[in-house]
Design a protein that fits this description.
This protein has helices at 2-10, 25-28, 31-41, 46-56, 86-103; strands at residues 60-61, 64-65, 68-69, 73-74. It is mainly alpha-helical. It is elongated, with a radius of gyration of 19 Å.
Length: 115
């Protein structure tokens, strides 16, 4: 990225850098949109989609404090950050954004780190 910026400046081109820090992005990924991306953008077959869906299906969360337990709540958004798949899912989820940027002949770099 540094090399591309320096080269652009050397050529006298208009050069800028925009950084998006999406610290909570892993918490808001919509599972249904992620599955649609897998199907449409990555040509994922039906068996793989069923497997991907089962990874998120029927997950519930609850809070326990002392002897009190909250009701179970469905888990429809977010990605388990302990998963090695979380950065890949982030890439798959946001792929259309990079495609739109590239249509305008702008260089785009992505870095994913979920720690």
């Amino acid at each position: 990225m540094h090399s591309d910026i320096a080269e652009s400046i050397d050529k006298g081109c208009l050069t800028g850098l925009t950084i998006f820090y999406l610290c909570a992005y892993f918490d808001v990924m919509d599972h249904s949109i992620l599955l649609k991306r897998l199907e449409l953008s990555f040509d994922t077959n039906e068996k793989a989609l069923i497997c991907a869906n089962s990874y998120h299906a029927d997950i519930t969360l609850y809070v326990s404090v002392a002897d009190k337990i909250s009701p179970n709540v469905g888990f429809y958004f977010g990605v388990r950050q302990e998963s090695v798949l979380a950065p890949k899912k982030y890439y798959m989820y946001t792929k259309p954004v990079g495609e739109i940027i590239k249509q305008h002949t702008i260089k785009c770099y992505c870095y994913v780190d979920d720690i």
